[in-house]
Write a structure and sequence with these properties.
With 274 residues, the protein is α+β, with helices and mostly antiparallel strands. It is flat and about 120 Å long. The chain contains five helices and 13 strands. The chain starts with 34 loop residues before the first helix and ends with a strand.
Length: 274
């Protein structure tokens, strides 16, 4: 009776013989955003260079004088902001078998992935430049262990000097757990969320555009005039393909020669909250 009992094969009880199709696309779970690099002033000098910076008028600024009396001779101070260039590289190795048996979207993903990660590395270089003790953000514009209150944040943002639109860069945790909860003395919210479905711009606070940058740590913000960041692409992006003649492995590599510097050390602040 047991041998003759009717049996119906279904995908639930006989799943091993049902092949699973793989959609020809790859979902990217590794975030590759770099809004600070996107906002920076970009140049394309092809050799290492330095930029003279006028740092102070030591004497003889424009002033009212008596009739017929000459103004004092101007005396100025200058320094040089160096951008010599750093090499940024990333590569991926694919076996010959993998090349032929993988989904066609895999190689397209590799090229896009390399380009995106090089963009992230460029922003990391910008953050390194902002932290440079000589050429980065002025020491007076860096705050550590700051209590996230309305008065404290306004005081820090007031230190920013420089023309142009102002931006606050922070990760999602900082935006929604710190800025979104700040109230002024009358109990009004200081942060106004953006009504647009924008993946980067999240709102406005104290007249600053707030942009989500998940390259930053929790409770850390950079705020200032991004036009004062000079990002130079000596070579923007080069994708190279080569095959190892011994192993027949394909090597797909990306390369960029890049550097960045802050033109005005007072044009940004960095704040780490408690």
């Amino acid at each position: 009776e047991a041998e003759n009992r009717a049996y119906t094969h279904t995908t639930a009880n006989t799943g091993a013989v049902v092949p699973t199709a793989v959609m020809n696309r790859i979902v990217e779970l590794v975030e590759s955003e770099y809004p600070m690099y996107n906002d920076a002033s970009k140049s394309a000098m092809v050799q290492g260079f330095q930029i003279p910076r006028h740092t102070a008028i030591d004497a003889g600024d424009a002033a009212a004088t008596s009739e017929g009396v000459a103004n004092s001779d101007e005396q100025d101070s200058f320094d040089l902001l160096p951008l010599s260039g750093v090499e940024i590289k990333k590569h991926i190795v694919i076996s010959r078998k993998m090349k032929w048996q993988s989904i066609s979207a895999f190689e397209d993903w590799i090229v896009t992935h390399i380009a995106e990660r090089i963009g992230v590395a460029k922003e990391a270089r910008i953050l390194s430049a902002l932290g440079d003790a000589t050429y980065g953000i002025a020491a007076a514009n860096i705050g550590t262990g700051v209590e996230a209150t309305d008065a404290n944040i306004r005081a820090k943002l007031a230190l920013v000097k420089g023309k142009g639109a102002k931006v606050v860069y922070a990760n999602a945790y900082t935006i929604w757990n710190i800025f979104a909860g700040i109230n002024d003395g009358a109990g009004n919210k200081a942060f106004i969320p953006s009504p647009q479905a924008d993946p980067v711009t999240k709102g406005v606070v104290y007249g600053y555009t707030v942009k989500e940058d998940n390259n930053l740590a929790n409770k850390v913000i950079y705020a200032g005039a991004p036009s004062k960041i000079l990002a130079n692409n000596f070579e923007d992006l080069f994708i190279n393909r080569a095959m190892d003649p011994k192993t027949f492995e394909d090597i797909i590599a990306g390369y960029s020669l890049f550097d960045a510097g802050l033109e005005n050390p007072l044009s940004f602040v960095k704040v780490t909250f408690q």
